[in-house]
Amino acid sequence: MLICSKCLSRSADGKALKRALKSELKQRSQAQGVKRPRVVMTGCLGLCPKRAVVAASAASLQRGEYLLLKETAEAAEAAALLMPEAGT
Predict the structure, then answer these.
(1) Does residue 49 fall inside a structural domain?
(2) Exposed site from 6, 22, 32, 64, fewest CB < 10 Å?
(3) In the chain, % of residues over pLDDT 70
(4) Boundaries of domain holding 76
C-alpha cells in the first residue's frame, strides 16, 4: 500500500491515519489468511488534495485509481478497497 508522505505530513492527524490503515490491513490479512501488505511512504503521487491523504495499491494504480482519506474512520473502507477479498 502506498501513501503520499507529503500529504501525510500536511494532514492534522496523519500519524493516526497511517496507524489506523496499518491496523485495518493487518486485521484484514489475518482474516483472509494472507500475508500482510506493507504500508510504504512514497513521494508525491501528483494529486495534492487539500485536507486529505492519497493512498493506492499496485492494483489500484494499474487501474488509475487513488483513494483520498480524510479521517481515521475511513481506514476500514480504504483497506477493503485496497485489499479486496482473496477470492475476487
Answers:
(1) yes
(2) 64
(3) 95
(4) 2-82
Q: Which of 45, 43, 65, 55 is nearest to 17 (CA)?
A: 55
Which H or E element spans position 4? strand 2-4
Q: What is the dihedral of CA 33, 36, 37, 41, to 10 degrees?
A: 160
Number of compact structural domains in the chain: 1
Task: Specify if 87 maps to a domain.
Answer: no
Q: Is the pLDDT of residue 86 over 80?
A: no
Sign of CA dihedral 63, 50, 36, 23: negative
- Tell me the three cell numbers of residue 29: 490479512
